[in-house]
């Protein structure tokens, strides 16, 4: 249904343009009559032509001549002419190479030259296609205007006689229409260039190459640059066939990317790769060897459109390509290619309306491709969202595995020894034994609460777990371990689960218990200007300077240790443990929590 709607819309638009097109083409048909003569020798002069009876009548004011390798002469008769008005003779083809017009006057002929071969020496007025102001002394009574032309790109044109008012209106229409269409392509180019660079997607860059060459091609074929006075307008017209080769190369490159031919259409992809090699060779021939040879080689550009048709036909039939934007771009391309070749071979008169309609089709096709690229961005965003969900799920699993790992590292001797202590205390002090059982229960619940996999907990919850552990250790080693809690009363901080308790455990096990006399562990949590300071300090046996750095190196035999906590802090905050120790005087382990990293 979508395809039928697209086809209907394009058909109605094309039909509407054709109605206007044929009205314009036939507007001056009765006012002007034309005849044609082929100069096979290429040496005929105006005198030879005037005396020749070999002229063949043409239908009205249209030459309808396609490519011709020989020079042609045209005899133009103005059937209606108002000498009281300012009149212009216009020839609707901006790609002539060499044209000479002989305008009859009361004395002789006034000669006008134009075409890209003349460049700055052309006699034409700044207009989208060649135009000449009829001189006041023009003799239109029973006199013919003679015109001789040569062009590699076909000599299909319409001759019109327009007054000054019509000439200015037409000029303004060309400026507005051409300016809008050029603006659309320029906007598409820069938007997708920036987007492609930002998201690092080569398809967008290849699309920009396609839009840029399309812009150059239409600049050459519409002749709009002639109005602007652009210095190299004639140069662009002269090398329009080379620009066409470059555009075909851009289309082939873009097609491989947008349709993913390497995986979807491998045989067609092989042909496209051959064309991508062939086009630069042809372009070099055109630029440096022979324009005729290069232009002949440019005929292979039509192969690109054959490949394009095959890709879309197979893609739609196999339901690989379903995007209405890509289908729209393809149908517009088919319409524009058909109309272009009908015009090139002289089957349709070359009116400026047809030229700009082809330009319009190029712009809409480029917009359709742009919309399909927007779908790529949407797909990338959806994929990003899916990956984000997968990442979050994997992160949850990672935290669960991490906590499971930490819990699995708990020393079973600690539980065994604690139970032995409780057993000994029961006979002496049942209340104390009950308190120890309660502490052990809370401690084990904190360690083995697999239902709670929250990434962060409040520091007060973490300190509760520390207190359970400390009371158990103090029961195991009476009058040996003292703990001070230097905590800011209003601190609101969340920390990773099981990050402080292991530090306290290390301080007690490796600092206090190894000394002969009692020792003290101080736990600090302070809010600073730029974050928080967490510290666990002891006055135990201390650490050798050489061993201090080894503590932060991970080893599977070290259990959870400082190295594992350090790795977690780096991942969470980008910070790490700081160890300050002096042998025989104690150890302080600290880390910072930036405020901006708070959940």
Topology of this structure?
Blueprint: H1 2-25, E1 32-39, H2 46-51, E2 56-57, E3 71-78, E4 87-91, E5 98-104, E6 109-114, E7 131-133, E8 145-150, E9 159-163, H3 164-199, H4 202-222, H5 225-228, H6 233-238, H7 240-258, H8 261-264, H9 266-289, H10 291-297, H11 301-317, H12 324-344, H13 352-408, H14 412-428, H15 430-448, E10 456-458, H16 459-476, E11 481-487, E12 494-496, H17 501-512, E13 519-527, E14 531-538, H18 545-548, H19 561-573, E15 578-582, E16 586-594
Parallel strand pairs: 11-13
Antiparallel strand pairs: 1-2, 1-3, 3-8, 4-7, 4-9, 5-6, 5-8, 10-12, 13-14, 14-16, 15-16
Helix pairs in contact: 1-12, 3-4, 3-13, 4-7, 4-13, 7-9, 7-11, 9-10, 9-11, 11-12, 12-13, 14-15, 15-16, 16-17
Task: Provide tags for this entry.
19 helices; rod-shaped; 6-stranded antiparallel beta sheet; 599 residues; 55% helix; 5-stranded mixed beta sheet; alpha+beta
